[in-house]
Amino acid sequence: MRRQALQAIQEFNATFPDVNATVETMSGGQRQIVAMTRGAFWGKSLLLLDEPTAALGVQESKSVLEVIERFRSQNQMSLLIISHNLEHVWQVCDRILVLRGGNLVANLVKKDVTKSDVVSHITGAYSK
């Protein structure tokens, strides 16, 4: 199992200063990457990422987003990402669902809209 775990980490080009470290001693970004590789390791078909870059620094966020990109390109796995960071959503998602007040207000295909369109849906200023 250890060999398979190391292979999964290497597959996503994740860097860890010490592969023998416990999760408790890892940075927030490293913990996120471990959680994502765990999903791939167990062969799940859906990986739910709730605020995957929240409370991370710029470099750690960049590393996590790069791993998310690799997941998208290398796995037969769907990713559902919940985030308040439109820049990060825009970078890694093909489809954007906008929730406001607990209701789905937009189901958008990224290639068909602009960031401004998404913001309009988020703020409630969108008009057809």
UniProtKB/TrEMBL annotation:
Keywords: ATP-binding, Nucleotide-binding
Coiled coil: none
Molecular function per GO: ATP binding; ATP hydrolysis activity
Transmembrane segments: none
Pfam families in alphabetical order: ABC_tran
Domain ABC transporter: 4-54
InterPro entries linked: ABC_carbohydrate_import_ATPase, ABC_transporter-like_ATP-bd, P-loop_NTPase
Name the record gives this protein: Unannotated protein
Organism of provenance: freshwater metagenome
